[in-house]
Structures are given as C-alpha cells and as structure tokens.
Amino acid sequence: MKKTLLVRLTCILFLATLARAQSANELRFCLKSDPKTLNPLLVTDDSSETIRYLTGGVLLRVNRLTQEAEPELATSWKVSPDGKTISFKLRSGIFFSDGTSFSAEDVAYTMQQLMDPSLHSPTGDAFRSGEGKVITTVTSPDRLSITFPAPVAGLDKLFDQVAIMSAKSPQKEKAVLGPYYVADWKAGAYLLLQRNPNYWRQDSSGRKLPYIDSVRLDIQQNRDTEMLRFMRGEIHLINSVDPESFDKLAAQNPGMVHDAGVSLDAEFMWFNQVAKSPLPDYKKEWFRSTNFRRAISEAINRDDLVRIAFRGHAHPGVGPISPANKFWFNSDLKPHPFDPKSAMQRLQQDGFKLQNGKLYDRGGHSVEFSIITNSGNSYRERMATMIQQDLGEIGVTVNVVLLDFPSLIERITSTFNYEACLLGLLNNELDPDSQMNVWLSSSDTHQWNPSQKTPETAWETEIDKLVRTEASTLDPKKRKQLFDKVQQIAWEQEPFIYLVNRNALSAVSGQLQSVHPAVVRPQVYWNIDELSFRPEVASAK
Amino acid sequence: MVIWKHAARIVATILLGGLIGATLLRLAPGFGADEEQLDPRLSHASILARSQNQTNDNVTVFYFHHLRRIAGGDLGMSRAFERPVSELLRERFPETMKSVCLGLLLGWAAALAMTVSVVMVRSWALDLCTSIFSGVLLCIPAALLALLFVLTRAPARLVLALIIFPKVFRYARGLLARSASMPHVLMARAKGLGQIRILLWHVLPPAAPQLLALAGVSVSIALTAAIPVEALCDLPGIGQLAWKAALGRDLYLLVNLTMIVTTVTLLANTAADILGQPFKVSHA
Amino acid sequence: MIWARNLALSFLVVTAVAGLFAGSLTSGYAHQFRDLPSASPSRQHPLGTDDLGRDRWARILYGTRVSLFLAPAAALLSSLFAGLIGGIAGFAGGWTARVVIAIVDLFLSLPWLLLLITVRALMPLNVSPVTSVLITFVLLGCLGWAAAARVVYADTRSLSQSDFALLARASGAGGFRLLWRHVLPNLRPILFAQFWISVPVFILTEANLGILGLGVAEPLPSWGSLLRELESYSSLTAEPWRLLPLVLLIAVVSCFQIVLHKEELPV
Question: What is the mean pLDDT of residues A317-336?
Fold first, then answer.
C-alpha cells in the first residue's frame, strides 16, 4: 500500500516537474532591428509586426496553413449582404495582461483609434472603402457591429491585422490580449516577452497556453551572424532564410530546414512610363510599347534566374498573384516563355533592327537603358546582372545601377528620373484588395505611371474598372472572376515584368515541436502558442 | 587666454560642422523619401502626410531653431528610430566610447610595442615581417574581420583595435625610424647609453609632437571605423546610428551626431596640439 | 634586402602586365557560364567560377586593371593633398595654420557619405563603368587626405623649427626653397605611410561604395568587388580559392612596401 502510494506520488511529482520544465523554457530568435513602435495600430516595419503578432489579440486569425479565417476573441461573425457591416459575437470572461476586463467597448475603442484619419495607419487605410465615418454599435458587452461607409471586400480577414487595445487600462497599448507581453526591452540589444498570465487559450486537455514561457528577440541585423548563432544553437529559428544559407544548413542537417514552397513574395521589374519624366522621347516611346515590354520579358530566362540566383528555391513569376495564393491565383496563366526569337520578332514589328550585335530603334538610337535596384540585396544584384547578359543577346545594352533605398524611392516616386527599376514585393495579404492601389491608375503606388488624372491607356482604363468593381463586390466567386481578368491584362501588357516568386525558406531547431512552416508570414511561429520544446530538451533545461 | 581661444575655435567649428552636416543631408537625394511610401495599403492622404514629415524649412532657419532647442535640452526626434535623439544618444554613446577607448588602447599598445621593437632591435627581417603583418590587416575587409571574430566568439569590440593598429604602426614606424637615425641618437649610442634611456630621452621626444598629433587623429580614425564595425557586428553604438541616419536621411539624428563627432575630434586634436607644445624645442 | 626588393618589383610588374594583357590571357570577365555556377577549379576555369558562372581567373586579372592602377593613383593624390595642405599650414603658421587646421578637423568629422550619395545623383544613370570607377577613385583621393594632413602639419611645424631649417634660413634660403628643398623631403616617412595605407583602404572602400551606386558597375570587376564575396560565412567556408583576391591584394601591398622601403633604420 505504502509502495503504491509512493509510486503514485513519484509519478505525479515527475509529471508536474516535466510540465514545469516544459513550460519553463525560452524561445530565442532574431529581429533585424528595434521595433519602431509598440502601438499595434501604427505598425509599418517587420520588427513591430512581429511584436504585434506575438502580443496582440485579434478578433479572428487567418490560419497561415489553410489560409482560412478562424475564431479568436470573436467566437463568430457575420458580414451583412451589402458588405458594409460586420457583426461580432465575442468571448466572455477574458482579461488583458494587466487584469483589465475585455469587452465590446475595447473593440469599439480600437476601431475608433484605427480609423482616425490623422493616424495614417496602413492597417486603418486598408479598411477605408469610401468617404464617411465608420460607426461602431455596441449592443452588449459581448456583441457589437461595425458599419463602414461603403462595402469592404474581404472585410473579415482584414481583422487579422487589428490587435485589440484596452479602452480602460492605464497601461495603454502595453496591456495586451495575445500569448505574450513585452516584459523588457534593451534598445539595440533584445526584447523579452513573457507569457501573458491572462491569455484565454487552452489546449485540448485544458492546459493554459502558450507552452513556452518566454520569447527572447535579439536585435541582429547581420544575417551571417544570425545563421552562425542558429548553427550553434543560440537561437531556435530563422523565420526567413536566404537560399545560400538554406543549402548550407540542409547539407549539415536536412531536418533543420524547411522549404514550404512558393511564397506570396514577388520580384519584378518595370519600365518608367511617366510622360513628364526627364527621359528622351524615344526612350519613352520604347517603354510605352507593349511589344517592347513583351520582347524584353521573353528575352529574360526566368528558369536561369530561379536556378542560379535563387539556387532553385523560387518559381518563375507569372503575374501579380503568386501561385501560393490558392484561391486568387489565375491558374490559366503560365510564366512567359524564354524565347529570344519571338522577342526579336516583336521588336522588329516596332521597327527595331539588329546591326553588328546591337539593337537600334527606327530613329537610329541604340537601345540602351539602365536598371536601378536597391543595394544590399545580393539576389536582386544577381538578377540584374543576369538580365544584363540575357538582354545583351538581343543587342540591348543594360547598365545595372545600385542605389541606396531613399535615392531609389525619390527617383521612382518623385523625380521619375529612371528608366527601369527592379524591386520586389513582400506580400503578406492574400486578398488582392491589399494591392488595389498598385492597379488603380490614379494611385500614388501605380509604380510605372502613378497619379494619373485619367488613365492614359485603354488597358489601364479597363483595369481601373475591373478593380473598382471587384472591390465593391462581395461574392467571392464574382470577385475571383473579375480579378482573374485583371491578372490576364497584366500578363498581356506587362507593366510589371514578373520575374520570380521566391520560396518560403526557414530554419527551425530540432528542439522545437509542433512546427508547421507556412508560406504566409510569420512562416514558422504563426502558431506560437502551440510551439513547445521536446520533453528531453525541456527537462534538460 | 590661450584656453579661451581654443574653446572659441572649437565652439565655432562645431557649430559650422553641424550646419554643413545639415546642408549635406538636405541636398542629398532621397531626403524626405520613405520606404513606407511604397506600401500599397496607404491612402493618398497618408502618403502625403508621411512625405511632408520632414521639415521643409530652409537649412539655416532649421539649424537656428535646432540650436535653440538644443539649448533647452531637446535634441529633436529621430525619424529612423521614432524616438527622441537624446534617449538614443544616452543609450548608445557609452557603447561606442567603450569600443573606441578599447580599440585605441589596444591598437596603440600593439603599434607602439611593435614600432619600438623594430626601431631598437634594428633588424630588417623584423621590420619587414611587422610591415607585412600590418599590411595584411589593412587588406582584410572589416566585414571579414567581424565575421572571423563572430566565428571565434571573440569580443567584437576588438575589431576596432585591428583596424587602428596598422595605421598607427605605419605612421609611428616612420616617425620613430627617422628620429632614431638622427645624429644625436648615434652619439648617445656611441657613448654607451642604455637602450631604454636612448628610447625615452632621445628617440621619443623629437617625434612626440607628431605622435601626439597622430594620437589625436587616431580618435577620428576610430570613430570613423566604428561606423561599419558597429553596423556589421550589431553593436548598439552611435556608429550604427550614424550609418542609419545617413542612409535614412534622418536630419535631427545626423546633425546631432555630426556635432558630437566634431566635438570629440576637435577636443582630441586640440589636446594633442597643447600637449605637443613643450616638445617644440631644438631636437639636439 | 636587394633580392627582396627585386623580387617584389618583379611580382608587381608581372601582375601589372597580366592585368594589361588580361584580354589575351582569358576569355573575358563578363560571360556567365550558366551551366557551371560556383564551379570548382578546372582546366577551363583555373580558379573556378563565381555564383553566376563567370570565370574567376579572368575577373581577377581584369580587376587588376582597376585596382592596381587606380588605387595607387588615388593614394598618390591623397598623399599629395596631405603633404601640400599640412605642409603649407605647418610652414606658414599663425592665422593661416589655424584656419587650415580647423578646416582639416572639420573635414575629419563631416558625414562624407552624403556627398558621395549626391555625386552619384548628379551622374547620369547610363554612365560607363569605367567612368564611374574613375570618379570614385578621384573622390577617394580628394577625401582621404585629412588624417595624414594633421600629422604632416605637426611634423612640418617641428621641422621648420629644427636646427637644419634655422641653418638654411641663416644661409639665405627663402620660404619656397626652404619648404621644397628642406622640409618636404623630410616628410617622406609620413607621406609614404599615407600612400601605403591608402592603397588597400581605397581598394576596399571602392567596393563598399557600391552600395551607393559608385565604384565598379556590373559586370566590370575590381579586387574590392571580388573581396566582397568573402563577406558571407557560407562562401568563406566552402571554397578556399575564393581567398585568392585577398592573397593577391596582400601580396601587392607587401610588394609596394618592400619596393618603397628605405633603409631608415640605423645599423
């Protein structure tokens, strides 16, 4: 009898110790820089976005694997037929990290702050569908509705980015509803996040989440140092690994690296089509010609870009939507083929001639232009150099110019003193409405020819119409049909020459379990509250 | 009176340095440009608001107002970090000073030790080997040095010592070699004076003003070297701030940093000039 | 020492000639052999290929033209500026010296990165790689003199008050003659040091200025741009032949040192 009791007690103690050991662990990874803000409504940079994700509680969360919205602080929601109103039913009995209770008032307060026009929040701007006020109606402590002045397509998934702030807490944005809160911050060195004692989620056995007690985020800009530290076991994951490091890590320990497949990110180039740019008229004529752009596109070997610049960890680019975006990608479209002969034919149609290995336009000007790109990105530098050789084969002289980012931005947004630009888009949104401003001809971010008073080409008029209609349509199937047409036009006209879609590469220590890398950011820790250390590791700690 | 003259010159130069720094930044392309302007989620009003964030004042007007604010203890707001400049400097200045002081101390100690050995031993083989060694250090990129330090887990601050050492060694070797070949040193040797006495009384004093000038200049070299070293080694000092301020066109941060660097440079060089005064007598 | 000097001189000459005749010795620095990226050394490619499949041996030889000729020229320019400005200030003394030294101190403190960014903005985008690299080295020569000028100033002040200078003045030597015949030759140790330090520093700086759009533009190589390949851990540990540009730079700088070395040490 005594022996049985002793054995039972020992087992209980062991399990309790194991549980404690498992929870008494610290996850470590790196941020590129200090977060610019801890206010979740003002997030614009990666580091601030990481903090928001780890600390912010949201009404619903887009599952990064399935790309579907799942309930979080809201147990259910409903979008009205006219697409202007969304109603939420909230969980009850939830508290902020400082003990302040959570209710619909907090959601109302957050929306009021977010939609304040003087805030200029990118998250808030994503909700702005038209002129007029956003009205929040709190019907009970756990029910509210938010009405927008005009329909907002894909309204529900936008709330994945809205971290709820407390209306009552004296700690302001420091009181959070997410799995962690910011406990310590040594500027330039690290941030320490501790588990939120009031976090509402539990696992299936009723145990409070998160499993990992704390998260330490070291500020580390140097990617080589980050990789070295990962190899030494000083950090547990690298959310986004470059292809060279990926191959090196894979050679040493294949289990530590994950290629989740093609991501939402794209690398592309475009030509300056701004009428008032200080370019010579003959160059403007080249860049405005669809044949010219298509020819350049066909002369670029995308397979080589994928194989050599990205070591096979990318896919040839097709259009504005990556194949990773399962619902929105127009699967009828394929990457433009590498076909220098067809490229020459197109150029000849426009009066270009090849003489002694150099291409000349009908005015006798030799075809030469510069491609600008931002310095410090070795993959873009390589792509630009490879494009230089590819276009050299059809007699086009390309000068690769690396510029620091502010100089580049000034040229493409203000002085328009550039010819071609090679850049990329880090895309975290599945809904194409997040890119609406890129396709609207009147927009500031319509890169190849921004802020047009009226569309200068028929195809831009068509795209404007399609995008506006799509943004005010609620039926997902109809929206898909409309945006498929946008993708088709973009494919035909090539205002952006899409080059590659990079793969989502990550590195994760073998010590972690429940890791399911996704293609949407944050690739590795999107399910942070479910991550844990392996029992043998946790007990050793 | 001499001290007041120096002080006045230093203050005037600092003020001029700040103004020139501000002018360089205002004239540089990309001033006012923000990466966030490329965010497709932002509305036109938001993009406009962000691009108008930077001051549109004339440079001299801005600078005048900034000096008034400095007098009141307000150093302005950093655009790149979105924090008060005074807070950033308070956090990071000690880090850089630690690195610079350690770098200078070790760099000078190694350089002087090697230089003295070369000059007193008088072996061409030693001279050649030390020259080649210092040449090797000059040829290795700072990024590679930083990477090697990270690989070997050595303190990253020591990279500065390896950058300063070859430059100080090269100048010091030339100065002391010239000094050691002077007639009075030959005479002292012929008279049988000991090596240490010869070094301290006859070789070092003629080269002292130049060495002190070199010491002053090496502070500036160390501060300049701190910029890439801190950026590469992720040391949170003012070097990293300066790099981000220049690339981010952060006006307040850059003006304040320029004034700080000018102050440190001037103080170091002025101290070197003053300390070198007693040695400006006949060398014989 | 003579044999060492002759050996060093021969090495420099061979390297310079190899650079000049790179076209005859290799197939070209720009072509990307896309079937052979990051290839190991072979008969076709003695030093293998880089990430884009370009022949490394060819790129090193062509890079020699840029680095071996332009960097010493820029170093010479900066040494001349240091000598003249520091020398005149130290010799003139008084208000001239104070103003010049204040300018030198200011020069040491200002953020010249911004000037370089502005220069790039003023250059046309389609400037040829050769023009771009020439402008870069001229800029480096014009900006890299301040530290040495300070030391030259202190040295000149000392020298102009020394016994031989007094004797020269007493013998009737005027200002310019005194400066040119008696003071400047004694500044050799400082100026040599400045030259010798500047060569590798300018080669490395030219590569780093690539982030501002200055320096060599693709596909033209320079030793500095080849050395930038070493700045990642993954490439460093993988292929030791990538270290050849570094070895070559060290060898050339050491040879400069040996060739210019003067037996200043008393026996």
Answer: 94
Contact status of B228 with chain C (Cβ, < 8 Å): yes
Contact call for A419 and C125, based on CB within 8 A: yes
- First-residue to last-residue Cα distance in chain B: 31
User: Is A245's Cβ below 8 Å from some Cβ in C?
Assistant: yes
Q: Is A421 in contact with A387 (CB distance < 8 Å)?
A: no
Q: Is A16's pLDDT higher than 70?
A: no
Q: Is the pLDDT of residue C57 over 80?
A: yes
Q: Which of C121, C163, C265 sits opposite B177 (nearest CB)?
A: C265
The two three-digit tokens of residue B202, written as one number:
């006859």
* DSSP strands (E only) in A179-275: 180-186, 190-195, 214-219, 237-238, 257-271
Amino acid at A428: N
Task: Grade residue C266 by pLDDT with cuts at 50, 70 and 90.
Answer: very low
Distance CA B104, CA B116 (A): 17
The whole-angstrom distance between residue A187's C-alpha and the CA centroid of its chain comes to 25
What pLDDT digit, counting tens, does each position of A167-211 carry? 999 988 899 999 999 999 988 889 999 999 999 999 999 999 999
C-alpha dihedral (A287, A290, A293, A297), degrees to nearest 10: 170
Q: Burial level of A419, CB count in 10 A (0-12/13-18/19+)?
A: buried
Roughly how many angstroms between the first and final C-alpha of chain A, as a whole number? 34
Weakly modelled stretches of chain B, pLDDT under 50 = 282-284
Q: What is the pLDDT of residues B114-126, one digit of tens each?
A: 999 999 888 888 9
Give A482-537 pLDDT, tens digit per residue. 999 999 999 999 999 999 999 999 999 999 999 999 999 999 999 999 999 998 76
Tell me which residues of chain A, numbers 409 to 428, contact chain C at a CB-CB cutoff of 8 Å.
Answer: 417-419
Nearest to C34 among A304, A372, A399 (CB): A304
May I ask the CATH class of domain C2-24+50-263?
mainly alpha
Distance from CA of C8 to the nearest CA of B (A): 12
Structure ipTM: 0.89
pLDDT in tens, A392-427: 999 999 999 999 899 999 999 999 999 999 999 888
Angle (CA) A345 A350 A355, round 5° = 70
Count how many Cα atoms sit within 13 Å of the Cα of residue B208 in the half-sphere of its side chain.
Answer: 19
**Tokens 């907090």 appear where?**
A106
Q: Give the closest residue to A378 by CA, choosing from A294, A308, A460.
A: A308
- With contact defined as beta carbons under 8 Å apart, do B220 and B265 qualify? yes
pLDDT tens-digit series, residues B219-241: 999 998 888 888 888 888 998 88
Q: For chain B, positions 85-144, list CB contacts with chain C under 8 A.
A: 118-119, 122, 124, 127-128, 131-132, 135-136, 138-144
Give the closest-approach CA distance of A403 to chain C in angstroms. Answer: 5
- Determine which of C36, C38, C123, C233 to mutate to test the interface with A (most A C-beta atoms within 10 Å): C233
From residue A341, alpha-carbon distances to A60, A147, B77, B124, B141 in Å are 51, 56, 56, 66, 45
Cα–chain-centroid distance for residue A168?
A: 32
Cβ <8 Å between A222 and B234? yes
- Measured between beta carbons, which residues in chain C are less than 8 angstroms from residue B247? 113
pTM of the model: 0.90
CA distance C77 to chain B (A): 18
Q: What are the extents of the domains in chain C?
A: 2-24+50-263
A–B CB contacts, 8 A cutoff, strictly below: 111
B55 vs A409: CA distance, rounded Å: 18
Contact B31 A225 (CB under 8 A): no
Burial (Cβ within 10 Å: 0-12, 13-18, ≥19) of residue A368: middle
Mutate to test the interface with B, among C109, C150, C163 (most CBs of B within 10 A): C109
